[in-house]
Write a structure and sequence with these properties.
Elements: H1 11-17, E1 26-31, E2 52-59, E3 66-72, E4 80-82, E5 84-90, E6 102-103, E7 112-114, E8 119-121, E9 125-126, E10 134-141, E11 150-151, E12 158-160, E13 175-177, E14 180-181, E15 183-189, E16 195-201, H2 203-206, H3 218-228, E17 233-237, H4 258-263, E18 268-274, H5 277-285, H6 308-324, E19 328-331, H7 345-360, E20 366-367, H8 370-374, E21 375-376, E22 379-383, H9 397-406
Parallel strand pairs: 16-17, 16-18, 18-19, 19-20
Antiparallel strand pairs: 1-15, 2-10, 2-12, 3-8, 3-9, 3-15, 4-7, 5-6, 5-10, 11-14, 12-13, 21-22
Helix pairs in contact: 3-9, 5-7, 6-7
């Protein structure tokens, strides 16, 4: 694997990136970046809830002795009413650990009204957790939510109850789904955490193509490798399927959502930027089609006539804004996608130009070659056989593991 050496970072930036004192060392142990509702109908129509209890299973990347949960109504068309909420540890069989249930309160109150456009953090609760523990967050939604502020690709179970408040009860789901609803961050206070690493990208980072419920996204693999190496970092997956550097559509653009999805997280020391294939694919090759057939639920996304220079300017903005917050920015070239439905010669030329800049400009603090980890050695413009889910774009479990294993962990050694 090729790694470009990190540049010298000013002392002030290093101080800004340093962990907080042990008694107050918060990290983003789990994240799911939300996005606006995509369509009114079809497979990507936003969920809506009223007078139901929902529960979601999450895997923490870093444990600690306290935590808080950040709810979100970023794209809501009305206030979000939370009647009651709790968090509970799960064992390896998915069973609740006796004595681990904690009520989530808001300013000491059992419920909250989350204004339109807002995040809303719970009070801190004392709960001992370990790295990679699974937890369940359960909450009651007494009033109509309108279209959900959701994260489309949850890859773990969201359960919806029959009508009523069933928080803390044993209940069978009336329905299930695989998205994330109204949850964006679990912050953990960890006395040994070195910081938060944010993985910033699109569906490849989000884990499309990996086995649901098995935590096989490449950021999951990276988190496990860091733990095995004794590097106690939280890894916050800020991927959104379909995301682009410059244009909204499947989530706000990477430029537009940077403050909310990266800079607002606690103690971020590094971010890995692996995004751009949707910009060039949609610009030069037409709208991406699902391998199952048909465009993305009829979703129409605006596509400006961008070029490689504008893409590079976008990356520069991300780097500069992260550096201002003391964050080291690690870039990866855009991955190979020849064979995908929106591949074209023009798009490939743009990819090569952008990747040449990412690798050789020296503007990133370091470069990791996630692109070559995916690539077919006999045709580097395409993904290796078995490393994609059949669409020549999204990683399989094997491909995502190869990517997660390709990252040089010395980039995260404390200085």
């Amino acid at each position: 694997m090729t790694v470009i050496a990190r540049s010298i970072i000013p002392a002030a930036a290093l101080l800004a990136a340093a962990p907080l004192a042990a008694q107050d060392n918060w990290v983003a142990s789990w994240t799911a970046s939300p996005h606006a509702p995509l369509t009114a109908e079809g497979p990507f129509a936003a969920a809506e809830y009223e007078n139901v209890t929902i529960s979601q299973v999450l895997r923490l990347s870093e444990g600690g002795d306290q935590l808080r949960v950040r709810f979100t109504n970023r794209y809501g068309d009305r206030p979000l009413h939370i009647g009651e909420a709790r968090i509970v540890l799960l064992d390896d069989n998915g069973t609740e650990v006796a004595g681990s249930s904690r009520a989530l309160t808001f300013g000491g109150e059992a419920g909250a009204v989350v204004p339109r456009g807002s995040p809303f953090a719970s009070d801190v609760v004392a709960l001992d957790t370990s790295d990679f523990d699974k937890v369940k967050v359960e909450f009651y939604l007494p009033e109509a939510t309108g279209p959900c502020t959701c994260h489309l690709t949850g890859l773990d179970t969201l359960a919806v109850s029959a009508p009523g408040n069933h928080v803390g009860e044993a209940w069978e789901p009336a329905s299930t789904a695989m998205h994330r609803a109204f949850l964006s961050v679990v912050e953990v206070d960890s006395d040994d955490a070195l910081g938060t690493i944010v993985t910033y990208g699109d569906s490849i980072t989000d884990g499309v193509g990996s086995t649901p419920g098995e935590d096989r996204r490449w950021p999951d693999v990276l988190a496990e490798r860091l733990e095995d190496a004794g590097l106690e970092y939280a890894v916050a997956n800020a991927g959104i399927s379909g995301n682009r550097v410059l244009s909204p559509g499947m989530g706000e653009s990477a430029l537009a959502r940077l403050d909310e999805d990266v800079l607002s997280l606690p103690n971020v020391t590094h971010m890995i930027v692996f995004v751009g294939v949707n910009d060039i694919g949609n610009r030069f090759g037409g709208a991406f089609d699902n391998p199952g057939g048909g465009p993305l639920g009829g979703l129409q996304m605006d596509q400006p006539d961008i070029d490689a220079e504008q893409m590079i300017a976008g990356y520069r903005q991300i780097i500069e804004r992260a550096h201002t917050n003391g964050i080291e920015v690690i870039g990866s070239p855009i991955g190979p996608y020849k064979g995908a439905s929106y591949w074209s010669e023009q798009g490939e030329a743009a990819r090569q130009a952008i990747n040449d800049w990412i690798v050789n400009s020296g503007e990133f603090d370091a470069v990791v070659r996630l692109d070559t980890a995916f690539a077919d050695p006999n045709d580097p413009q395409a993904m290796r056989d078995g490393y994609h889910m059949g669409d020549f774009l999204h990683g399989s479990d094997a491909g995502l593991r190869a990517v997660g294993e390709s990252i040089d962990l010395t980039l995260f050694q404390p200085e």
